[in-house]
């Protein structure tokens, strides 16, 4: 799996333009439906970034939605049953999910390849069954109803989560921005290079003195923390959690978003893949013909995989476009080690 | 000690998991991929049998079983030709073909939901009646499942060990490059194997059609369980698939008798433990 450095291909002006556009979006529309598409895309994008980060270490996790479930249930149980205020319990949700990811990672990351996929699938199913059967804490299939975040008073400005979707929207933007910055920094630092080398050739990487297990655990834990935040946020936004919200099919969805979006850039691929596939899913489900959305969704994913050049996702189309327009040379220099360390 | 009915149910489940796992392992040993769409071929097979039996011609059940096997084998070959073959090869990891077969799950379930509707269908009128064995009784439908599996396994044994195609399959599984040097068309072998695997899944779905309800989502659970059976037996080992199917079918019924809904969690824990302690499974070759 060759990874291309897209840092040079996405100019700062374009990135800032899109960020500003997203930031002032509520000026144009405050409709809950439009905003909730963006919000849900953001939630899935965070989970997809985690998945891609784990993929960078050469592991293929099929249970990422379980960490969303862990975060969601942790935050809801902390507020509802232990009476901890909303914001601390939101932070704790990510930490709990991260700690569980760390413990599980230390045990299961020893196994590689398809075996790791099946182990994560099995663990995710165990978490789902526990959520369903542990009636006393999780209320089984009836689910929990997390409370609305409290109103924040900022000077003269009052942020009230219960009346409109806009505060949730800004909360999401901040969450995605923090996650994106963390993952972007990881990708373009020394640790990101280590991850790529592990994905490119595990044996060679190990012989170069890279402790595979250590970096895998780091990736798994970081992914677990942020996926937990995404889950906690999503449960609060929808104000319900049931065991079936974050099951095997959601894990598969995360995986498909990651691969369709492209794995050569952790942040951009995740954002593009999650937004496009989630929006596609929403619009397809509005079609009048019953059940056609699954058919078209599956067909769209297969077609993207078949017709994009091998090993690329949608994010690589942008890279190609950028190179064509600005006539950058096909082969561009990989920054030297010293430059990478200097940034 | 659970009653005899539970053991019979376990045996029936074992038979189905065994047949499905056998096809998946066969595909895995030649193509080197897990076909995640296997459960959907099971579902489509059940629908084919349903529509063949309840059509105006009223095709007899055994013949419609064979028809469904052939039709779905053709469909599986199409999938191999147009999706899997194009996404495997140098440069592609497991990643792309896994994503594609997972996406095909949605495709086939959506197609089945559109074409056949979402409501449960039954085929209970085929093979009615029960066999009274004194203290307990077994329905003829379940006996049919067991006999069918025996026939399939014997046929597969003969095909793999006594025919030229079987020899080619075994050679290509062992050493694809050497096999192609000896004049075996490995691409054609992949097509044949995919056809056999999908046909087996379809016939398993067809034979189960009278026992359970038929709906577009019926393939998911057998798919997951046959995957677990493969893991228990060892990825890439045909004997392992059979033994794993038997173990899993009985365990599922017997643990469910004692623990009800938590039984699945126990099974998944067992699989995690097996993968951690002995990743190659009970019968698989050690991993490099």
Describe this structure as you would to a colleague.
The complex is a heterodimer of chains A (343) and B (288). Chain A has 343 residues and is mostly helical. Chain A has one domain: Orthogonal Bundle (ABC transporter involved in vitamin B12 uptake, BtuC), CATH 1.10.3470. Helix content of chain A is 70%, strand content 2%. Chain A has helices spanning 12-23, 25-28, 32-56, 64-80, 86-108, 113-133, 135-138, 166-187, 190-200, 202-207, 212-238, 248-261, 266-284, 292-307, 314-326, 337-342, and strands at residues 152-154, 157-159. In chain A, strand 1 and strand 2 (157-159) form a beta hairpin. Chain A is globular, with a radius of gyration of 20 Å. Chain B has one domain (11-217). Chain B has a two-stranded antiparallel sheet with strand order 1-2. Chain B starts with a helix and ends in an 11-residue tail after the last helix. The relative contact order of chain B is 0.20. The chains are: A mainly alpha (343), B mainly alpha (288). The A-B interface holds A 1, 55, 60, 107-108, 110-111, 113-115, 117-119, 122-123, 125-126, 129-130, 132-133, 248, 252, 255-256, 259-260, 263, 289-299, 301-302, 305-306, 310-311 and B 34, 82-83, 86-87, 91-96, 98-100, 102-111, 113-114, 118, 216, 224, 227-228, 231, 235, 261-262, 264-265, 268-269, 271-272, 275-276, 279, 287.
Which helices and strands occur, and which strands form pairs?
The complex is a heterodimer of chains A (343) and B (288).
Chain A lengths: L11 H12 L1 H4 L3 H25 L7 H17 L5 H23 L4 H21 L1 H4 L13 E3 L2 E3 L6 H22 L2 H11 L1 H6 L4 H27 L9 H14 L4 H19 L7 H16 L6 H13 L10 H6 L1
Antiparallel strand pairs in A: 1-2
Helix pairs in contact in A: 3-8, 3-11, 3-12, 3-13, 4-5, 4-6, 4-11, 5-11, 8-11, 12-13, 13-14
Chain B lengths: L3 H28 L6 H16 L7 H27 L6 H23 L13 E4 L2 E4 H23 L1 H11 L1 H6 L4 H23 L11 H14 L4 H22 L3 H15 L11
Antiparallel strand pairs in B: 1-2
Greatest interface (CB-CB under 8 A), with counts per chain: A-B, 45 and 45 residues
Name the assembly state: heterodimer
Q: Please list the strands of the largest sheet of chain A in the order they lie side by side.
A: 1-2
Q: How many alpha or pi helices of chain B?
A: 11
How many structural domains in the coordinates of chain A? 1
The percent range for helix content of chain B is over 70%
Structural class of chain B: mainly alpha
